[in-house]
Design a protein that fits this description.
The complex is a heterodimer. Chain A is mostly helical. Chain A has 21 helices and one strand. The longest helix of chain A is centred in the first third of the chain and has 22 residues. The chains are: A mainly alpha, B alpha+beta. Chain A: This is Acidic fibroblast growth factor intracellular-binding protein isoform X1.
Chain lengths: 364, 1041
């Protein structure tokens, strides 16, 4: 006796969270059944393996049918075929768009193209995440990217509106889209110690301060040639950053800056002497990063540069985080007292964000 | 006189891409009613077209309004070639034809295509202006209300129950017409859908006419079925119970009013004496078939069993004369009708006086081509014959009426088994005729009907019992005689006194049959049928005893015929009725007493059985109060009856059942193990595993012993098809397979629904079909309802102590007739009237308490509903207003239903999700009140695929189709302004596959009553599930660019 057909259809679509997770993780029906058996569900419920198999198949079929709708979550809300309570719809969507840390670290900042998709095999082997799950996560990134790429307005809001994600997840996707668009390098060995959270934090700061959308609260002329978008860095701003170069190019200014910082920090830093000796190097590093951002290539290497020019020197001198914070604060603020320096606003826009980023990046 | 039908096509959404080049669609809509067609403009290049059409007006006869469905076709305009159909929507406008139901149909309907399934949705508004028609000879029956519910609908009151109405119409099946060879599968499917829609409209109209003739205004328990007879045609038949219903303005205001003027009372003075003997009511199945006519119109009538208890009986005299009197009177009311049948399974209090037992009749027919569709005489005659037989069986049981009546067919090739079954009963004539009832007599009847056990009392004469039965004095009132076991097809009466909980009991049986043609085949089947009936009966009896119970309700026996086998599946809900005696145990006897090891084996089995009984008693909380023996008296069998009993035994000598009279008054049921078959039977008895803890199941409306339902319900359909290995199939192997299939299916259900525990599967409805040689298909539809466990414990404890008082308290249905109940029953009771009232009121406090529990539960649900997804949408909406270049707003495309919803003040964003429509096979929704019936839903769909593998195989195909059917039912209900379907039933699910050709086809027929319900607890909650299916501006991804 073999089962030809075996289905269960509820007026309210049954969603088993555990099976959903297994499905999202890309397990085949048989693997999922084996994993469920191992979880001890048979003992708890007194069910047989056959029952479990049939149940798993059923859920997989349902998820498969739902997947098409999950690609455009508002469709899930308005479709009539599956009656799902709103809380469950939210759960389905949220889980579907949730990604693995290990995976996102592999593709963050890469172009979401066919080429990258071909590398998913390697990523799967490397991370231990099933290829199926990698594909889903990659396709999610790409889909979100495609939808919001050309859109005006807040990136996070756009994502939330079109994919109905929770605030946290929408922010993460904003970071992914932002990184993919600007192609920031995150894969270098030097950067391996950084988590997705670190990058996402930086991305958020950069979106808030360095993009076109950040300039004015609302664009005065919606039809202006300016792209009112969160995904692109403000080109004009990047151009202007060249002006900061004077801070290190002008020797007097640099010395003045150093003395201002050292006066305030004397006795407050445990690594004062190291700071004093390294000040010019660090300052040169930070200002040169700013000055180079006009080139796309250098934009991509932003994080590499920050780590090389600032994080690593400090770390090799064993600066405690509190000292880094104090230094960066003072380093930024002191510039206001430099009479010969005219680009205070620009400096604050640059350094405010950079300070936040550096503090986040500064850890082991 | 004509009516005016007005249709407006508002918008579409989620349309499929029809033009590959542009990834868009140029959609327009054709609106067709009768022979008139209107078209909308073409809405170019959009998947979300906004037609916003004018009102299309059709001026039509009301006859057409009843028969014809409104047909809406969505097409893709193509300049160079023929326009491509996207899909269709059929809208039954019947609900708009009676005043109290819906006033407008408005909402999003799934666009359905028989090949592709649902392809987007369309927003339609339909209205009807109907002019009153006073023409006596009219052909239409607008205004007659139809209900699938098999009890008096909740917000109505039965003034008169007129009785049985039936009708059938036949036609050629388009699938078998010559033209089918040249048209596309789509065209053929659509022709069929349309034809069946037309036929059911016509059928309903004709039934309505009959109801009007009977001076009724409604049909309750309306059951419409299709017989796909293949080559010989298509039969659509329906039965129902004609009633005159009054809308209840307030339940408390009810008084039993029977003052409508009586005019045409053709009382037949002829009093039928109760039939004697057992004309065709046999305890033994071995009885030659009567009336076999081996003509082209071949027919074999199969002798019928009347299921009641077996055993010896004793006689008592009380109540005899009264019964005769009662019979006389009620007969006059019912006998004038050809068939005194009611399709109801639950009754207004006081209507059901006595229950005799199950009566059923089957007949095997050979199908022949229906030559003249306008004169479906053959089919009519077949059913008339069967109904006649049922009627005579009922008479033999001393009953003048049959309740819980239903009819079914099973067709395989050209052989058709017609089945009918019901419960023989004596009814109170008060409800059955208009006016004039002698008050004195009525009172006498009522006096002699103690609450909670009256219906168990035997209606037949003890001295002329139609079959041997073991009678005792009622354990409840001690006045009247009751049988030892009671089988019925109805729901448990609300006032019945039950001990413990009930459970689902199934008998399953397969019999191999040689493949044969025509007459030989029919003869073979009709020869097998009695054996099957008998074995099903034995199995039911054994299982009932194994559960320690003594009555079956909702019994439904389905016999399915296939090419090479017959299948029998009986489902019922077993209960322990306090009025009936404690069932005896099961004794096992061996045939070869000399063999020591064998003896040991037997005693081992015996022990296992005894253990199971004890365990079941504990599980179902069956601990009846001890009754002292003296009161009951020992029933000593009379010699005359004993001899007859023995004779009937000898007739069935080759069967395993034998009565061992030496066991004295506790009639133990003896299973004699004399061969492997019997062994198998005993084993199969013991293989039925009880549901896991926290689960109960029954096939009746409510579970006896549980009365504190909470609001969570989950209706589901599960389908399984298994292929039997064709190698040396034996009956035993078949039985085992079939048993395993059913048990596994139940286990799967329990597993799937485990998050709902404690819960009860109610109205579990199994349907078996044999689509091909080695295929068995089992379809189950049921509803899982959660209940509050703590309260259950309390009430059952309380109930064990005061079972009598509890009887009237546990169902809200009772609340409709509280005054009547009290006024009728008070004088007859030993204890003071006030006390009983108080008692019932106090134990009734369980109901409000349950509601309170409901409100808690539900508000937490509401919390979840208003989760952040709503917030996001709200936020998104406000955000986009300023900054995003998205343009199309669909707001104008969402005319909210109409004034049917009480809480239109709900925040607009809450209604953005699709409204929840509940579906349930029950007639009620726990924790809620049905405020309005909007009309019946009766839908027929065909789905076909030529890319089976691509759609996920047979499972994927059927899963999607059933989900689509649910969606279409919900959409229609929502468009009528409703938020639930009650008495939902999937009447047919015919699935055919041809995997080698990558093809499959499925036909599904569903029906139910669309209703509006309001949560008793909290109206606020409604906002979370407001059924307004409208679209908010931010809805679609495609709109934005």
């Amino acid at each position: 006796m073999t089962s030809e057909l075996d289905i269960f259809v509820g007026n309210t679509t049954l969603i088993d969270e555990d099976v959903y997770r297994l499905w999202l993780d890309g397990y085949s029906v048989n693997d999922a059944v084996a994993l469920r058996v191992r979880s001890g569900i048979l003992e708890q419920t007194g069910a047989t393996a056959g029952v479990l198999q049939s149940d798993t198949m059923d859920h997989y079929r349902t998820f498969h049918m739902l997947e098409r709708l999950l690609h455009a979550p508002p469709k899930l809300l308005h479709q009539l075929i599956f009656q799902i309570p709103p809380s469950r719809q939210a759960l389905l969507i949220e889980r579907y768009y949730t990604f693995d840390e290990a995976f996102v670290r592999e593709v963050l900042g890469k172009k979401l193209s066919k080429g990258t998709k071909k590398d998913l095999d390697d990523i799967s082997t490397k991370t231990g995440i099933t290829l199926k799950s990698c594909r889903r996560q990659f396709d999610n990134f790409k889909r979100v990217f495609k939808v919001v790429e050309e859109m005006r307005g807040s990136l996070v809001d756009n994502i939330q509106q079109h994919f109905l994600l929770s605030d946290r997840l929408a922010r993460d996707y904003a970071a992914i889209v932002f990184f993919a668009n600007n192609r920031f390098e995150t894969g270098k060995k030097k950067l391996q110690y950084l988590s997705f959270g670190d990058f996402a934090f930086c991305a958020e700061l950069m979106i808030q301060n360095w993009t076109l959308g950040a300039v004015g609260e609302a664009p005065t002329d919606p039809d202006s040639q300016m792209d009112d978008m969160d995904v692109d860095l403000d080109k004009e701003f990047l151009q202007d950053l060249k002006e900061l170069k004077v801070l290190v190019a002008d020797k007097d200014l640099l010395d003045l800056h150093k003395s201002l910082v050292c006066t305030v920090l004397r006795g407050k830093l445990s690594v004062f002497s190291e700071m004093e000796t390294n000040f010019k190097n660090l300052s040169r590093g930070l200002v040169n990063v700013a000055a180079k951002l006009t080139h796309n290539k250098d934009v991509r290497d932003l994080f590499v540069d920050l780590v090389e020019k600032f994080v690593e020197p400090c770390r090799s001198d064993h600066w405690p985080l509190s000292d880094v914070r104090l230094f960066l604060t003072q380093y930024s603020v002191s510039v206001h007292s430099l009479d010969g320096f005219r680009h205070q606003v620009l400096w604050d826009r640059y350094m405010g964000t950079l300070r936040g980023c550096l503090l986040r990046l500064y850890h082991d | 006189m004509p009516g005016k039908l007005k249709v407006k096509i508002v918008a579409g959404r989620h349309l499929p891409v029809m033009d590959r080049a542009s990834d868009l669609t140029d959609a327009f809509v054709e609106v067709k009613f009768g022979n008139t067609t209107f078209k909308t403009d073409v809405y170019l290049k959009s998947l979300n077209p906004q037609w916003n059409s004018e009102w299309f007006k059709f001026e039509v006869d009301d006859e057409d309004l009843q028969d014809e469905p409104l047909q809406i076709t969505v097409l893709d305009h193509d300049t160079y070639s023929a326009n491509d159909a996207i899909g269709k929507v059929y809208i039954d406008i019947d609900p708009l034809l009676y005043s109290e139901a819906a006033t407008v149909i408005s909402g999003w309907f799934p666009i359905y295509d028989t090949i592709h399934g649902i392809r987007g949705e369309i927003n339609v508004v339909v209205k009807v202006d109907l002019f009153n028609d006073l023409n006596r000879f009219r052909q239409s029956s607008c205004g007659v209300k139809f209900f699938c519910t098999t009890s008096i609908p909740k917000c109505y009151r039965a003034v008169v129950i007129h009785g049985f109405v039936e009708e059938l119409v036949v036609n050629e099946d388009p699938e078998y017409q010559w033209i089918d060879r040249i048209r596309t599968p789509r065209a053929s499917n659509e022709a069929r859908q349309r034809l069946i829609s037309l036929m059911s409209g016509e059928l309903q109209r004709k039934i309505g006419l009959k109801v009007l003739e009977m001076r009724g205004n409604a049909v309750v328990g309306y059951l419409q079925c299709f017989d796909l007879e293949g080559e010989s045609g298509l039969v659509v038949r329906a039965i129902g119970t004609a009633c005159t219903l009054d809308k209840l303005s307030s339940p408390a205001a009810f008084l039993p009013a029977c003052n409508s003027p009586s005019k045409e009372m053709k009382e037949s003075p002829l009093v039928h004496p109760p039939s004697h003997g057992c004309r065709s009511t046999h305890n033994s199945p071995i009885h030659t078939a009567t009336g076999s006519r081996l003509t082209q119109n071949f027919s074999v009538s199969v002798p019928t069993l009347i299921y009641t208890g077996t055993g010896s009986g004793s006689a008592g005299k009380e109540g005899g004369p009264l019964k005769a009197l009662l019979r006389q009177q009620t007969q006059s009311a019912l006998e004038q009708r050809e068939f005194p049948f009611l399709t109801l399974t639950a009754f207004p209090p006081g209507l059901l006086v006595h229950v005799g037992g199950v009566v059923s009749a089957r007949s095997v027919k050979l199908l022949d081509r229906i030559h003249n569709p306008d004169e479906p005489e053959t089919r009519d005659a077949w059913w008339a014959e069967i109904r006649q037989e049922i009627k005579s069986h009922a008479k033999a049981l001393g009953c003048h009426a049959v309740v819980g009546y239903s009819e079914s067919t099973s067709i395989c090739e050209e052989v058709c088994i017609l089945s009918a079954s019901g419960t023989a009963a004596v009814l109170n004539p008060r409800f059955l005729q208009e006016g004039t009832v002698e008050g004195s007599l009525e009172q006498r009847i009522e006096e002699n009907l103690p609450v909670g056990c009256g219906f168990c009392h035997i209606p037949y004469d003890e001295l002329n019992m139609p079959f041997p039965a073991h009678l005792t004095y009622c354990y409840n009132c001690r006045k009247q005689k009751v049988p030892d076991v009671l089988f019925t097809t109805i729901d448990l009466p609300t006032d019945a006194v039950v001990v413990g909980k009930g459970c689902l009991i199934q008998a399953r049986l397969c019999r191999l049959k040689k493949k044969a043609q025509a007459e030989a085949n029919a003869t073979a089947i009709s020869n097998l049928l009695p054996f099957m009936e008998y074995e099903v009966h034995t199995q039911l009896m054994n299982k009932l005893k194994l559960k320690g119970m003594n009555a079956l309700f909702g019994l439904r026996i389905q016999i399915t015929v296939g090419e090479n086998m017959l299948m029998g599946l009986a489902s019922a809900t077993g209960v322990y009725l306090a009025a009936l005696p404690t069932p005896g145990g099961i004794q096992i006897a061996g045939k070869t007493p000399n063999d020591g090891s064998y003896e040991q084996h037997i005693s081992h089995m015996q022990k296992k059985i005894n253990d199971t009984i004890a365990k079941n008693k504990e599980l179902y909380e069956i601990n009846p109060p001890e009754v002292s023996e003296e009161i009951i008296g020992s029933p000593i069998p009379e010699p005359r009856q004993r001899s007859r009993l023995l004779r009937s035994q000898s007739e069935s000598s080759d069967e395993v059942t034998e009565l061992d009279l030496s066991h004295g008054k506790k009639d133990a049921f003896v299973l004699e193990i004399d061969d492997a078959d019997a062994m198998e039977d005993v084993h199969s008895l013991l293989t039925d595993v009880p549901p896991p803890s926290g689960f109960y199941s029954c096939n009746t409306e409510i579970m006896p012993g549980i009365n504190n339902w909470t609001s969570e319900i989950q209706m589901f359909t599960s389908v399984r098809v298994v292929r039997l290995s064709s190698l040396n199939l034996t009956n035993q192997a078949l039985n085992k397979n079939f048993n395993g299939l059913c048990e596994n299916l139940l286990k799967s259900l329990y597993f799937k629904l485990r998050s709902m525990t404690p819960c009860c599967l109610c109205h579990v409805n199994f349907t078996v079909s044999l689509p091909e040689d080695e295929l068995i298909q089992v379809t189950v539809t049921a509803v899982a309802i959660t209940f509050d466990k703590n309260q259950a414990l309390q009430t059952t404890k309380a109930h064990a102590e005061k079972s009598l008082q509890r009887a009237s308290a546990d169902n809200e249905e009772m609340l409709q007739f509280p005054l009547e109940l009290c006024s009728d029953s008070l004088p007859s009771h030993a204890f003071p009237a006030a006390k009983e009232h108080l008692e019932s009121a106090s134990s009734n406090s369980g109901t409000p308490a349950a509601q309170r529990a409901t409100s808690v539960d539900y508000s937490s649900f509401a919390d979840r509903c208003s989760s952040w997804i709503e917030l996001i949408k709200l936020k998104a909406q406000t955000i986009r207003r300023g900054s995003i270049k998205t343009t199309v707003t669909v707001e104008k495309a969402s005319p909210m239903g109409d004034g049917n919803f009480r809480n239109r003040s709900a925040p607009p964003c809450a209604s953005s999700t699709v409204g929840v429509v509940k579906m349930t096979p029950l007639s009620f929704i726990p924790g809620a009140k049905i405020t309005k019936y909007l009309g019946i839903i009766n839908m027929f769909f065909i789905r076909e695929t030529t890319s089976l593998r691509e759609e996920g195989g047979v499972s994927g195909f059927l899963h999607a189709f059933i989900a689509e059917v649910f969606a279409m039912v919900r959409a229609h209900v929502a468009a009528l302004g409703g938020n639930a379907v009650v008495s939902y039933i999937m009447k047919q699910c015919v699935f055919m596959e041809n995997p080698s050709k990558n093809q499959a086809q499925c036909l599904i027929n569903v029906s139910g009553d669309a209703v509006v319900f309001v949560r008793e607890s909290d109206l606020e909650v409604m906002s979370a599930q407001q059924p307004a299916v409208n679209c908010q501006p931010s809805c679609t991804g495609e709109v934005t660019t």
